[in-house]
Specification:
This protein is 39% helix and 26% strand. It is of the alpha+beta class. A hairpin with a 5-residue loop joins strand 2 and strand 3.
Length: 188
């Protein structure tokens, strides 16, 4: 085993000792190796080489000439930077194209990438919108994220039936009340 791998696994062993368990017992024997492997997967957002390339198509060419709202929704999973426990939930994304149309699967890939590091939801929603907006320069872009935070549910106040909602509304979603209302109606 290389020294970096050994260091990483020894760190997990120390964490197991810190919480009062025995890292040498049978059930935990391979846990340090599995935890390090998991960290590399769930924290891939620190690896710039894994930032998704966006499939972008020129609007007005090849039969694409679209100027209405395009929406996408899905799930996200991240880790609270304050307590290192998960937060997760739903996202609702929309944009009104200008000269570029975004490949649909890329929204989910961008959400996954920026979620895959220690985060706070307020930063996460902005990073996603900033990245996509810079690449496609739409007439408007919007993102709502609704998340459950285990740092609130399983520790501290221990309140389970709530979610945090964060939004970013830009361009026509911010300036045009009817466009904003249409988008928000989709996210309910």
């Amino acid at each position: 085993m290389q020294s970096q791998e050994k260091f990483e696994q020894d760190l997990v062993k120390m964490m197991l000792k810190t919480i009062g368990d025995n890292p040498d017992r049978e059930g935990l024997k391979d846990t340090p190796k599995r935890v390090v492997k998991m960290w590399k997967e769930i924290f891939r957002g620190y690896d710039e080489s894994q930032k998704p390339d966006l499939a972008i198509f020129r609007n007005g060419r090849d039969g694409i000439d679209y100027d209405e709202m395009i929406t996408d929704s899905g799930y996200f999973f991240s880790q609270c930077e304050h307590h290192c426990v998960p937060f997760f939930g739903n996202y609702f994304f929309a944009y009104v194209p200008n000269k570029k149309v975004l490949g649909l699967s890329k929204v989910a890939r961008v959400v996954d990438y920026f979620s895959a590091k220690l985060q706070i939801q307020e930063r996460l929603v902005k990073e996603i919108v900033d990245y996509i907006e810079k690449e496609i320069q739409p007439k408007g872009i919007a993102l709502i994220m609704k998340g459950r935070h285990l740092c609130k549910e399983m520790r501290g106040v221990k309140k389970v039936d709530g979610e945090m909602t964060t939004t970013v509304l830009r361009g026509c979603f911010r300036k045009e009340p009817e466009t904003r209302a249409e988008f928000i109606s989709y996210s309910k």
